[in-house]
Each structure stands twice: as C-alpha cells, then as structure tokens.
Amino acid sequence: MEKKATKKTINWGIIGLGNIAHKFAKDLLGIKGATLYAVASRTQDKANRFAKTYNATKAYASYEALAQDKHIDAVYIATPHNLHYENTMLCLDNGIAVLCEKPFAMDANQVAKMIAKAKEKNVLLMEALWTYFLPHYRYVLEAIKNEKFGKVVKLEADFGFYKTFDDNHRLFNKTLGGGSLLDIGIYPIFAALSTLGYPQGITADATYFDNGADASCTMVFNYKNGINAYLKSALVEDTPTEAIFYCENGCIEINTMFHAPATVTLKPLNGKPEVLDFNYSTIGYNYETEHFNALLSSGKTESDVMTFAFSEKLIKALDAVRELIDLNYP
Fold first, then answer.
1. Exposure string (b/e) for 64-87, b if CB count within 10 Å is 16 or more?
2. Is the pLDDT of residue 1 over 90?
3. Radius of gyration for the chain, computed over Cα atoms and rounded to the nearest angstrom
4. Which of 39, 174, 311, 326 is most buried, most CB within 10 Å of its CB?
C-alpha cells in the first residue's frame, strides 16, 4: 500500500552520532528538499555538539525523545549493530520512516519482525547499504547484466584493514555485534548476492580474537556451472579491498575501497585496459539518501533497489556463514 505523495521538505533525524553519522549528515547538507531536523545521543552534550556542527534544530539526550517528535519524517539509524532492531522498531512504532544502517539487524528473525512492523504501520523502511546506490556500482551491475565481457565465471571480493585490538571499541566488541563479518564482511557478500544471486552452497572459515569476535573470515560461495565467489573480510591485515569480476572475455575490476566511491577498470581479453572515473564530489551517502527521499515523497513504503527480499537474502547469507564458523553473539 502506498501513502499519499508529499512535496514538502523532509525533516531528518539521526539516532547514534558516531563516525558514520557524521558522514551521512555532511552529505545530507547538500541535498535539496531535505534538512537535518533532530539528532539523538545518549548524552546531551554529544547531541548538542553534533547538532551545532550540522545545524540541526533539535538535540535529544535519548532516542525515545527523538522518536516522539512529530516533526520528524525520516530517521537514519547509525547505532551499533546490536541496537538496529530495537531502534528501528521504536521509530516504526511512532510512524517514522527508517533508513537503518547495515547490517539491518543481528539475524534473520529480527529482520523479519522489522519488515512485518513496517508493513503493519505502512511506513517506509530500508537497509542503508550505500554501495548499491553509488554510480560506479550501478555501472558495474549494468555491465554484468548486459554481459559486456560475457558471463561472470569467477568473483573475488575482499575488505580488510589492520586496526589495533581494543575490546572497548565497537568494532571488536562482540556484545555490540563487533568483528569482521557483520561490519565489513557484509560488503563482499553483498557483491556476490547483487551480481550472482544466492549461492547453492557456502563454505567458510574464520580466525578469532581472544574475546570471541571474528578477526577474519574467508568464504566461498558456490554457484552452478562451477562458478565461485571467493570472499574475505579481515580486521588484522590490509587487503586490496577490491571486487574483481572475471568474465568470459575480460575482467571488470572495482578498484580499492570498492564499496565506497571508486574507479572501475575494464580489461578486455584482447585490448587495452580502460579506467573509468566517476568524478565523485561527495562522500557518497547522498545517493542512498536521495533515493530514500524520492520514495518517501512519492508515498512508497519499500525500495525497488534495496528491497525487503534482498535484505532478507543478505541476512540469510550472514546467518549461514555465522553458523559455519560457529559465531554466536550474546
């Protein structure tokens, strides 16, 4: 069911004011027809500072207070992974559209409940996996769909960086959903699912920090006709962080930081490589936000790009890998 379309300025709220919220807010400043209306943190001081930096009208010291503000049209949830479900349900219960940072939730059960609540309330809900909306990635999806170099025969995608272990940092804190898989492993998995679909089989292996959070994860997604996707995430080493699609007649390579604004190298089997630069002038969060704004303005309650079905597929794959590597969260 669709809501009545609206043309008014969209008032945004942000819940959780960490690093990614700053990036989102900075790009939001340049979007027409949208404004940062309110922000919420667990402390008033942090909320005040963030609000001042990005000219937000309201600063709240609790997520509940923000969710009850009737002037807010949409909320971006940028809290740690373990809070995504709780924060999303809070906003949906208050009739506010939600753009929730990836991973959508901690498991498929939570995701199913979030989607059911959005449908019950007839409110827009979308997982914020920004890569799906970036121009370079849209180009690659089209090139693969149109078989620019023939069919994909193999995919290699990785995301890894070294960071000194800190049990108090959300990246390593297992209670918060920390570890490589949910935080960055989701991107190589996304690359496979968005181009090759859901695999017929999955194998996976992992290494762990002393606190039980996964330090690295290697995965192989098996498809029909012997096609495999070799995927990796790591918090203990710097990796190329590329996505390379090996095709019948050449390669399509998304260069380093493939999940973020990046260049693409086309390598035909018999021909010169060509580097495509997409001339990004923003951090890149504006693309998903503009898509979300358009959905909201036209009364849509589900994205036609980041669909509920795709989010369900993504969390299903993450759950499957977790089971294979025996990774359980508190």
1. eebbebeebbbbbbbbbbbbbbeb
2. no
3. 20
4. 39
Cα separation, 288 vs 236, in Å, equals 30
Report residue 282's pLDDT band, with 50, 70 and 90 as the boundaries: very high
pLDDT digits (tens, 9 = 90+) for 99-147: 999 999 999 999 999 999 999 999 999 999 999 999 999 999 999 999 9
Residue type, 181: L
- Rounded to 5°, the CA angle 115-219-217 comes to 90
How many other CB atoms are found less than 10 A from the CB of residue 185? Answer: 31
Q: What is the pLDDT of residue 330?
A: 86
Query: CA 179, CA 185: separation in Å to the nearest integer?
Result: 9
Give the 3-state secondary structure of residue 36: strand
Give the CA dihedral 132, 137, 138, 141, nearest 10 degrees: -100
Neighbouring CB atoms inside 10 A of 2's CB total: 12
pLDDT for the residue numbered 6: 55
Distances (CA, A) of 98 to 37, 84, 122: 15, 11, 12
pLDDT digits (tens, 9 = 90+) for 203-253: 999 999 999 999 999 999 999 999 999 999 999 999 999 999 999 999 999
Catalogue the E-assigned strands of 78-190.
Answer: 97-101, 125-128, 152-160
The confidence score (pLDDT) of residue 4 equals 56
CB neighbours of 84 closer than 8 A, spacing ≥ 6? 77, 100, 101, 103, 104, 105, 106, 110
Give dist(CA 173, CA 189) in Å, integer.
22
Peptide bond into 103 cis (omega under 30): yes
Maximum separation of any 2 CA atoms in the chain, in Å: 61
Peptide bond into 199 cis (omega under 30): no
Q: Which of helix, strand or coil describes residue 325?
A: coil
**Cα–Cα distance measured from residue 306 to residue 328, given in angstroms and rounded to the nearest whole number:** 26
The answer to whether 137 and 131 are in contact (CB under 8 A) is yes
* pTM metric for this prediction: 0.96
